[in-house]
Amino acid sequence: MSGARAAMEGVFAGDRRELSELEIAPQAALADEVRALIEAVIHTEVPETELREAAAAVAALTERLNTARRNRPPAARLGVNGMVKALGSPVTGVLNAIAPPIDVVTLEDGSVHAEFTLTDVYEGPPTFVHGGVSALILDHVLGAAAAANGTPGMTATLDLRYRRPTPHGVPLVVTARTVRNEGRKTWADATITGPDGRVTIEATAMFIFPAT
Ligand SMILES: CCCCCCCCCCCCCC(=O)SCCNC(=O)CCNC(=O)[C@H](O)C(C)(C)COP(=O)(O)OP(=O)(O)OC[C@H]1O[C@@H](n2cnc3c(N)ncnc32)[C@H](O)[C@@H]1OP(=O)(O)O
Question: According to its UniProt record, where is this protein mainly located (predicted)?
Answer without folding.
Answer: membrane
